[in-house]
């Protein structure tokens, strides 16, 4: 436990100053017990916010003044926090691993495409409960700009719900309902940029000095050109370049930094006013009852000449300060980093060494997702195993989000170094994956499309639904029963590996029913140039009706998935906190890893080929497993060990342990 007495002298001085000067703000406004809790947390996390903030803004003349403003806002937000959320804060502080439990299973959807409105989502909660969902990420739902809005990632008003979806009251009601059911709510905080129709941007454009400093703007091309030399293109097709000329802005016009689309203006975090604005939005969302804030496009928050302007050290200072501030005011709320970056950069978002627990609790495990698709296309797992060996084995206080698909594209982000280490030629492997999943490769089972084709570099990414990429679309088209069977097996294999890992597994709308690509976006001029819409399906409730019928494709996938989820929920061996040991299984088609927890050991083996495969039965003795094995996924059946070999069926995934090690979920605390 940190306390004021072990702080560095300058921090202690600043803290004492704040406490003396600011105490009056609390008196009479809050219950004395609340004041005690506030000061306890403030003391506990003070240096986490003080150090990064002084590094970022300490040199400014108005630093102290801004710090005072920040403090005032924290007190206000804390005072406004509803009682039930304050109680939840306390509960979660005593169970800091609440989001690491094996019961955590996520689902992501667009409110309108899933159920029309927020009220509609409430009506569908029994469906999500049937699936076993305990974490719901609703895609952007705050008021976007009109016209194209990058799927809602161009927000015009952060304090309003998109009017066709409902109202703020509906959102609060939904959050309450979710909380009663034990489902956490995740919402996006789009903090790298705002829509050019957002009030700040409008006022900047009109030349208001204060708001001009909210953005990165330039009178001519000299600086933009200098930055461009090292900047990559995020959307090379629809939004080439990183700057947009805004005619008539603040006089003649200016170049505005727009990393993504021209209508998404990057915020300038060198300005503490911007920092404060975002803090306020965090409080606002937290007090509505949001549990998880998804920090959209986190890597891009800080720009530096001569770099790719991603993952700059200041990004981590910003997150650390945000983290500490929200921990003081609303510690029940956690952060999810949306950082699709190489693994070495990613771990920083989760916190490493001295910053453990000071960054985000959650981050997308893009690497694992990409490796799964790579293994499925090639039928080989060497690359996967190699990368797993290099990844950090145990991260304290945080969890990866493991997923197969989301609303974005799949970019083949394995590093050149890793590809070379396993004998692949990096650009050829990536080209193969693009060809395979866009269906261009001879003999491919996949139906998908390309996204973000960069004509000058030849780079491209892939888009498509899990089912279509795994071969279901083609198999159905051909009416080939055996191919349908294989496609379903592939889908359940991928889910089985995702659910058979720590962290939070996250399903994407329709994956539970095997929904196929949705090409209808091509008819909609607002979406036609963004192929990511191929995998943003409208929920097919008719297909959902068939989910209990095992004779249907939907029923086979849904029931198979529910079975995996229930199995996961019943064992604490899939709690996030475990020692992970990747294994070289001796059979390149079979992925293997062990998870060791105090109460027992779990082994996962997954066959990525369409044939039976064997590995040496000895492999199953890792971690001291003794005696007869059980496969949690096929209760009661004998594990097929034959003459020293363990046999794994085509595309099968096994979760092995022993009767003794099998641990009910209650065996794990927190
Ligand atoms: C995110 O993705 C969202 O998920 C996208 O849907 C948005 O378009 C985008 O931000 C802008 O708001 O480049 O291809 O490392 O990869 O922020 C997706 C993070 C993206 C980026 C990520 C971005």
By helix and strand content, what is the structural category?
alpha/beta
CATH topology of the largest domain: TIM Barrel
Shape: globular
Number of domains: 4
Instruction: Give the CATH architecture of the largest domain.
Output: Alpha-Beta Barrel
* Poorly predicted runs: 1-5
Radius of gyration: 25 Å
Q: Classify the beta-strand content into a percent band.
A: 15-25%
**Could you name the CATH class of the largest domain?**
Alpha Beta
- Determine the fraction of residues in helical runs and give it as a percent range: 25-40%
Biggest sheet, open or closed, and with what strands and sense? 8 strands, parallel, barrel
Distinct compounds present: 3-O-alpha-D-glucopyranosyl-D-fructose
Topology at a glance:
Elements: H1 9-26, H2 32-57, H3 63-80, H4 83-94, E1 106-109, H5 111-115, H6 118-123, H7 125-131, E2 135-138, E3 142-144, E4 155-161, H8 168-180, E5 184-189, E6 193-195, H9 199-205, H10 209-212, E7 217-218, H11 222-228, E8 243-247, E9 253-257, E10 264-266, H12 272-288, E11 292-295, H13 313-329, E12 334-337, H14 343-350, E13 362-364, H15 366-378, H16 382-390, E14 399-403, H17 416-421, H18 426-437, E15 449-451, E16 461-463, H19 466-469, H20 472-478, H21 481-499, E17 504-508, H22 541-545, H23 553-570, E18 579-583, E19 590-597, E20 600-607, E21 613-616, E22 629-631, E23 641-642, E24 645-648, E25 653-658
Parallel strand pairs: 1-2, 1-17, 2-5, 5-11, 11-12, 12-13, 13-14, 14-17
Antiparallel strand pairs: 3-4, 6-10, 7-9, 8-9, 15-16, 18-19, 19-20, 20-25, 21-24, 22-25, 23-24
Helix pairs in contact: 1-2, 1-3, 2-3, 2-13, 3-12, 12-13, 15-16, 20-21, 21-23
3-O-alpha-D-glucopyranosyl-D-fructose is lined by residues 150-151, 153, 190, 234, 260, 296-297, 299, 338-341, 407-409.
């Amino acid at each position: 436990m940190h306390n004021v007495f072990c702080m560095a002298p300058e921090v202690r001085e600043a803290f004492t100053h704040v406490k003396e000067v600011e105490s009056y703000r609390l008196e009479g406004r809050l219950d004395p017990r609340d004041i005690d809790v506030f000061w306890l947390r403030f003391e506990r996390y003070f240096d986490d916010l003080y150090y990064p903030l002084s590094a970022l803004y300490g040199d400014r003349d108005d630093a102290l003044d801004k710090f005072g403003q920040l403090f005032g806002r924290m007190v206000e937000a804390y005072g406004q926090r509803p009682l039930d959320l304050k109680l939840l804060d306390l509960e979660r502080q005593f169970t800091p691993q609440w989001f690491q439990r094996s019961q955590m299973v996520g689902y992501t959807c667009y409110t309108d495409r899933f159920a029309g409105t927020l009220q509609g989502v409430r009506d569908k909660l029994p469906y999500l409960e049937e699936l076993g969902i305990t974490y719901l990420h609703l895609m952007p739902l705050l008021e976007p700009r009109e016209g194209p809005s990058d799927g809602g990632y161009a927000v015009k008003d952060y304090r309003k719900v998109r009017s066709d979806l409902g109202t703020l009251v509906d959102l609060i009601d939904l959050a309450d309902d979710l909380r009663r059911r034990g489902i956490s709510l995740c919402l996006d905080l789009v903090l790298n940029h705002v829509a050019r129709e957002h009030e700040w941007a409008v006022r900047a454009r009109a030349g208001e000095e204060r708001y001009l400093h909210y953005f990165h703007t330039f009178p001519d091309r000299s600086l933009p050109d200098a930055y461009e030399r090292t900047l990559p293109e995020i959307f090379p097709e629809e939004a080439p370049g990183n700057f947009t000329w805004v005619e008539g802005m603040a006089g003649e016009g200016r170049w505005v930094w727009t990393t993504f689309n021209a209508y998404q203006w990057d915020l300038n975090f060198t300005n503490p006013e911007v920092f404060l604005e975002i803090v306020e939005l965090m409080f606002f969302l937290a007090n509505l009852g949001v549990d998880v804030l998804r920090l959209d496009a986190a890597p891009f928050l800080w720009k530096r000449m001569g770099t790719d302007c991603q993952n700059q050290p200041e990004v981590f200072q910003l997150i650390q300060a945000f983290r500490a501030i929200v921990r003081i005011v609303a510690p029940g709320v956690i952060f999810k980093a949306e950082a699709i970056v190489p693994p070495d950069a990613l771990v920083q978002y989760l916190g490493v060494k001295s910053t453990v627990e000071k960054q985000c609790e959650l981050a997308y495990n893009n690497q694992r997702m990409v490796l799964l698709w790579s293994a499925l296309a090639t039928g080989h797992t060497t690359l996967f195993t190699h990368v797993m060996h290099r990844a950090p084995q145990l991260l304290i206080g945080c969890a990866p989000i493991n997923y197969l698909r989301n609303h974005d594209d799949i970019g083949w982000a394995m590093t050149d170094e890793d590809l070379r280490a396993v004998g692949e030629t990096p650009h050829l492997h990536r080209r193969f994956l693009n060809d395979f999943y866009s269906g261009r490769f001879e003999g491919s089972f996949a139906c998908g499309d390309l996204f973000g084709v960069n004509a000058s570099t030849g780079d491209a990414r892939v888009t498509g639904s899990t089912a279509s990429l795994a071969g279901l679309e083609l198999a159905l088209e051909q009416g080939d029963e055996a191919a349908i069977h294989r496609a379903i097996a592939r889908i359940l294999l991928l889910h089985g590996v995702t659910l058979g890992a720590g962290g939070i597994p996250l399903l994407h709308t329709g994956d539970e029913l095997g929904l196929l690509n949705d090409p209808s976006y091509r008819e909609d001029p607002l979406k036609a140039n963004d192929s990511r819409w191929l995998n943003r399906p409208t929920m097919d409730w008719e297909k959902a009706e068939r989910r209990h019928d095992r004779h249907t494709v939907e029923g086979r996938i849904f029931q198979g998935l529910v079975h995996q989820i229930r199995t996961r929920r019943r064992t604490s061996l899939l709690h996030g906190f475990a020692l992970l040991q990747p294994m070289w299984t001796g059979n390149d088609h079979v992925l293997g890893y062990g998870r060791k927890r105090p109460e027992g050991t779990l082994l996962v083996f997954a066959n990525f080929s369409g044939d039976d495969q064997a590995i040496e039965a000895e492999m199953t003795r890792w971690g001291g497993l003794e005696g007869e094995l059980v496969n949690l996924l096929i209760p009661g059946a004998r594990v097929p060990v034959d003459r020293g070999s363990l046999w794994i069926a085509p595309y099968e995934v096994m979760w092995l342990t022993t009767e003794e090690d099998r641990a009910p979920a209650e065996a794990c605390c927190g």
